[in-house]
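Forwarding these from the shared drive since the link keeps breaking.
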Amino acid sequence: MINSKRKGKLGELEWCEKVRAYGFDCVRGVQYRGMPGSPDTVSEQLSAYHFEVKRRQTSGFYLWMAQAEREGAGKIPVVAHRKDHGQWHVFLKADDFLELIKASQT
């Protein structure tokens, strides 16, 4: 059984690997800034976003989104979540999602 701190670190590394597979830079936030309130992962190319990365069986999307909003300092909050042996999912506010879709249409 993996302890929660180690599981969180592995989740952050897995998320970075996923992001890098799409051609974006990505490092763990603790390696980049290492301060309370730092995002879980950092990408200079995706600097408009504040990522909270969770790898847990249970979900607490609304609590995690509140954390991302609180710590994100005006950035678009994003929660990336994966259950054990599952796929990655992203949780966004509807307005942020629709703005992304709108921007991709131009």
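-- next protein --
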Amino acid sequence: MTKQVISGDMKVWDVIQNYPETYEVFRQFGCPDMRKGMFAISAHIMKVRWAARAHHIELDKLLESLNEAVSPRDEDTSETRH
């Protein structure tokens, strides 16, 4: 299970700035490029939950994907030892 670092109450701009790897996740879910133009302005005030609602995205799925993008991969440390 992924530890939740990003919540629906965080501003989109803060998420993208603090976790640049999340930009592609937003884009994969159909969000516009929020790094420039009018969308950049709205990203400064828009919370992740509002962005999900505005773009008809299921919030839980978006948050899961965003948090997976920022969590370190543990697969390498869980090797079975013989």
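Residues 12-70 form one domain. The two ends are 25 Å apart (CA to CA).

- D.
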